[in-house]
Amino acid sequence: MSEEASKEKRKIKSAKKMRDLMTTYYLDALSASQNNKKVAWITSGGPVEPLVAMDIIPVYPENHGAMIGSAKMGEDLCAKAEDMGYSADLCSYARSDISCAVVKGGPIGGLPKPDMLICCNNICGTVLKWYEIQARYFNVPLFIFDTPMCHTGYSRPVADYVRAQVDEYIRFLEKVTGKPFDHDRMAQVGKLSMEGQRLWQKVLNTTRHKPSPMSAFDAFFFLALIVTLRGTQVAVDFYKELIQEMEDRISEGISIVPEEKYRLLWDNLPVWYQLKWLSNTFSAHQACLVADTYTSAWCGAIQYIDPDRFLDSMAEGYTRIYLNIGVDQMAEQVIQMVDVYDVDGFVMHSNRSCKPYSFGQMDIMNIVRERTGIPVLMIEADMVDPRNFSQSQVETRIDAFMEIVKQGRDKH
Amino acid sequence: MLTTEQMQPFNDAVNDPLSAETASKEREIIGTLCTYAPEELIWAAGFHPMRLFSSKSDIVLAENHLQAYCCSLVRGILEDSLAGRLDFLTGTVFPHTCDSMQRLSDIWRLKGKYKFFADVVLPVKLNTPSARTYMLDILNTFRTELEAAGGRPILEQDLHEAIHLFNRIRRSLRALYDIKSQNPSIISGADLYTLVKGSMIMDKVQAADRLEQLVSTLMPVDTPENDTGRVILSGSVCDSAAYYQVIESADVQVVADDLCTGQRWFDGEIEDQIDPMAAIADRYMDRMICPAKHSDLTIRGEHLASLAKKHRAGGVVFLLLKFCDPHAFDYPYLKEFLETRGIKTLRIEVDEQQDNAGQITTRIETFAHMI
After folding, report:
1. Given a cut of 60, is residue B216 above it in pLDDT?
2. CA distance A33 to chain B (A)
3. Number of domains, chain A
4. Which domain holds residue A61?
5. Is B331's CB within 8 Å of A87's CB?
6. A202 found inside a domain
7. What does pTM read for this prediction?
8. Beta-carbon contacts below 8 Å between A and B
9. Would you list the DSSP string of B74-113?
């Protein structure tokens, strides 16, 4: 087989459908006001299901940030935010979104104007400030879904507080839309959301196969649906097809990395503007990033959610997600992933833009090293702002790390 | 001006938290990392709540836990702990504030260096009834943890006494700030900073007594004729007398602040006629807000504008600790909010590892001409 044909064979076919679905989704969102539909901006880890049940179109500034990063438009938009007075040390998703709202830039000319903002702080404190800024700028109502950090566990007071906010959230939506909340529809959406999350977990689990049919780089791409269309039939149908394709690839022996020899685990957000380069660099070492802590966060709280009592259990599910727990619990999950995906090394992205994800990484690194014995690499970068990325430096470090991974494997 | 003798105990406490003159004699020390730490409860349980600051030593050991893009306050305090400079602590309490403090709490807990450890994960929203209920629940949880650590129940009487004590400190500091605002030359900015910081560190009965003594000796005199430039400081911590000195040497007076090391610590008294736990919760819901918390969208702008009006300040100097996200996010809106109301602003970036106060002289002098 020619190299071209082999490359073509490795391509994941569902990618085109996924792109089409995302295009349709963004077109719907951009034309929402013409169709008398309301738009809510919501944080990536936010409780979207009540919005879907209310026929409100959820829009994700963080997904938009990822698009800006992938389109390599981050530097320009971040610099514009700095001209507006925002420190260059602030989150690059926030900086690029804040300036984009004003200059209507970016790959799709800015997001549709929100009718309301839904901010859930289970991922960071940054979103709180970011959404306050947008609430002042767009002068629209802001709902904050406050999910107290669960350093060591989930307590009764936290459960009561978050559950009370589920009701406040619904009243907020009723007030903004002027429509009563449809609990029957909510029950359906809750079930679809759960099904979508289970299917997403199944997609990610296909990489347990050796060689892996897809990589974390593909997961970063296919993630968009479970984030943006969670709770819809569209997401459920798509992931079923994707799983089918992965199973077909497995049975036909098609791997994403040619001659996969080493399996790695990734930590933190992707480096959106260097995905292709990073993917090629690891591939050249016959290494596949088979899993990551980031994309699995959208199915990590399944255990807490009861689809028959979705609203009640959602409080716990949204509070106990990966980033809203203690560093030691995060390390435990990493160790579990090392085992489940049988990886030979751990690559950590120390991400200047994401403090709750990055601080504590060195402790996680030590715990993982000690408990599993696998080598760990930490690279310094930023998810959207390329000014904090040195390609030559990262390349040297990856090369050195892969030498250690190879030696480690040879010992076994 | 305050005499050296008057300032001595506060300087001692700042220079050496365990200073024989000002440290508690019987109480074990619980370190606090934020103005939202419920100090009344810690005191009522029989401990001495002491605010921790960075000693600003070189970061060596903390390099293995926190990246360079973490603020110098968080890294500096971790360094002090790892280097054994805080071994006098019986424990620490971490109220939930920013992302960096939240992870410092995890790292600290895993190190397990001290006997007592508590996270007090307060609500981020301070403007809803359910958040208030949760605030009260969390304070009650913390009370139980303290009772276990102290080996005795906290009685209503203990709470009332602690509230009374802290209210005395707050009242005196407020009086001192008012005196400073009315006649800035009576207390230098550096002294006022030392009084606040010293009070955060020293034994609380001593702080209350000594502050009251100072207030009684410092009755305000007439407002001076030459009205110098008057500014408000805003930021997280301003842990260096040098900033006050640089500002004052440019003939500008700091007449109020919105700082962790200032009015945010002592703003708002606790009601002593109602249930003490509820009263403590209410103060946190109502007092001057930290940007890591949420209330009305323009509450900080309005607060700064009203402070400026009340204290006839022509400008606000933002002392922004590098890598402090909550304050950095608020800065552009606060600048615009204040400037459209005729209040000038100046931003100065602060890094506790490098005292750059000397380098801002020219900027302060230029600013002095604008206000």
Report:
1. yes
2. 26
3. 1
4. 12-181
5. yes
6. no
7. 0.97
8. 143
9. HHHHHHHHHTTTTTTEEEEEEE--SHHHHHHHHHHHHHT-
